[in-house]
Amino acid sequence: MSMHDDILKVLVSEEELKAKVAELGAQISKDYEGRNLVLVSILKGSVVFMADLMRAVSIPCSIDFMVVSSYGGGNTTSTGLVKIIKDLDGDLSGRDVLIVEDILDTGITLSNLVPMLKMRNPNSVKICTILDKPSRRKADIAPDYEGFAVPDEFVVGYGLDYDEKYRNLPYIGVLKPSVYEK
Ligand SMILES: Nc1nc2c(ncn2[C@@H]2O[C@H](COP(=O)(O)O)[C@@H](O)[C@H]2O)c(=O)[nH]1
Ligand SMILES: [Mg+2]
């Protein structure tokens, strides 16, 4: 059985993702020209977006990775708990930090993380997310760069998982409820 069989509908196609990432990369390259850019990927969800976005950015930049947890395996709703599992390797002082995220949902994760990163004396901290689910927002936070607004449905693919599966789908889709209602 293919994992594609578990997808109810495709929300964002591979082609749409490719075009949007190129657009975001061009805009970021323009906005951060002559600055000290570091792309900070929030693992694991942003891994695919990060790999594509960094190659769409045409100016010099460095990359770093952080593992932050707010969702447990097998769960489709936020616990409200935010933990740093793996911190950044590099120093952020004087850097222009661009957080690369998979999805801004309740906003709880980033509304906790942004102030923590700001305490490390960066020049700036901004957010780039491939997906935004504004109808679910609980924290007062908005992305600076956004790919697609999606409805209030649990999505997988392009790095986003359900129970560590479906991250390798090349598109973003809605999972059949029967998968998590099992
Ligand atoms: N696979 C999916 N993961 C999701 C979805 N909505 C949110 N998330 C994950 O949670 C974090 C935190 O989001 P928050 O804004 O509520 O704190 C997010 O980065 C994702 O990793 C979803 O629909 N599908
Ligand atoms: Mg995430």
- The third-level CATH topology is Rossmann fold
Average the pLDDT over all residues and give the rounded result: 93
SSE-based structural type: alpha/beta
Oligomeric grouping of the chains: single chain
Poorly predicted segments: 72-79
Question: Order of SSEs, N→C?
Answer: EHEHEEEHEEEEH
Task: Give the tally of structural domains.
Answer: 1
Strand element count = 9
Count helical runs: 4
Strand proportion: 25-35%
Going across the biggest sheet, name each strand in turn. Answer: 4-3-2-5-6-7
Shape call: globular
The N- and C-terminal alpha carbons lie at a distance of 16 Å
Biggest β-sheet: count, sense, barrel?
A: 6 strands, mixed
CATH class descriptor name:
Alpha Beta
Instruction: Give the names of the bound compounds.
Output: ligand LQESDW3C, magnesium ion
Range of helix content: 10-25%
CATH architectural label: 3-Layer(aba) Sandwich
Radius of gyration: 16 Å
Notes on the protein architecture:
This is Hypoxanthine phosphoribosyltransferase. GO terms for molecular function: guanine phosphoribosyltransferase activity; hypoxanthine phosphoribosyltransferase activity; magnesium ion binding; nucleotide binding. The structure is a single chain. By secondary structure, this protein is of the alpha/beta class. It has a six-stranded mixed beta sheet with strand order 4-3-2-5-6-7. Strands 1-9-8 form a three-stranded antiparallel beta sheet. The protein has helices at 14-31, 47-56, 108-118, 177-180; strands spanning 7-12, 37-43, 62-69, 83-86, 96-104, 124-132, 145-149, 155-156, 172-175. Helix 1 packs across helix 2. The chain starts with 6 loop residues before the first strand and ends with a helix. Helix content is 24%, strand content 30%. It has a single domain, classed as Rossmann fold, CATH 3.40.50. Bound molecules: the ligand Nc1nc2c(ncn2[C@@H]2O[C@H](COP(=O)(O)O)[C@@H](O)[C@H]2O)c(=O)[nH]1 and magnesium ion. The ligand Nc1nc2c(ncn2[C@@H]2O[C@H](COP(=O)(O)O)[C@@H](O)[C@H]2O)c(=O)[nH]1 is lined by residues 45, 70-71, 78, 101-109, 154-156, 160-162.
